[in-house]
C-alpha cells in the first residue's frame, strides 16, 4: 500500500510531536531525578524542588503531556480528515 503525500505529512507531524513530548517526558523523569541534589537547593512552597518534582511536579507534567497530545491529535485528525468523531 502506497501512502499518499497527505498521509506521509500526517505521520510526519504525528511522529514529530510524539518525539518532542517523549523528550519532555525523559527530561522530567530522568534528568530531574539525576540532578535532584542540585534541585534541592531551590525551595518551592517550603519543599526542596527535587522533592516537589518527584512528588507532584512530574505528575502534573505527565497529565499536561497527555492533555496536549490528545488536543493536538484531535486537531490534526480533523485537519487531515481522519477524525473518528460522530457529528
From TrEMBL:
Query: What taxonomic ancestry is recorded?
Result: Bacteria, Pseudomonadati, Pseudomonadota, Betaproteobacteria, Rhodocyclales
Q: Name one Pfam family in it.
A: DUF4212
List the NCBIfam families. Na_symport_sm (TIGR03647)
Keyword set, alphabetical order: Membrane, Transmembrane, Transmembrane helix
Asked if the Swiss-Prot or TrEMBL record annotates the protein with the keyword Membrane, the reply is yes
- Which residues are listed as membrane-spanning? 20-37, 49-70
Q: Which domain of life is it from?
A: Bacteria
Give the Sodium symporter small subunit domain ranges.
7-83
Q: What is this protein called?
A: Sodium symporter small subunit domain-containing protein
Task: Establish whether keyword Transmembrane helix is in the entry.
Answer: yes
Amino acid at each position: 500500500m502506497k501512502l499518499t503525500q497527505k498521509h506521509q505529512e500526517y505521520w510526519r507531524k504525528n511522529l514529530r510531536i510524539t518525539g518532542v513530548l517523549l523528550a519532555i517526558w525523559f527530561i522530567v523523569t530522568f534528568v530531574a531525578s539525576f540532578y535532584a541534589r542540585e534541585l534541592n537547593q531551590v525551595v518551592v512552597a517550603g519543599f526542596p524542588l527535587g522533592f516537589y518534582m518527584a512528588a507532584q511536579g512530574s505528575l502534573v507534567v505527565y497529565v499536561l503531556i497527555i492533555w496536549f497530545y490528545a488536543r493536538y491529535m484531535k486537531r490534526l485528525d480533523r485537519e487531515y480528515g481522519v477524525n473518528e468523531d460522530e457529528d
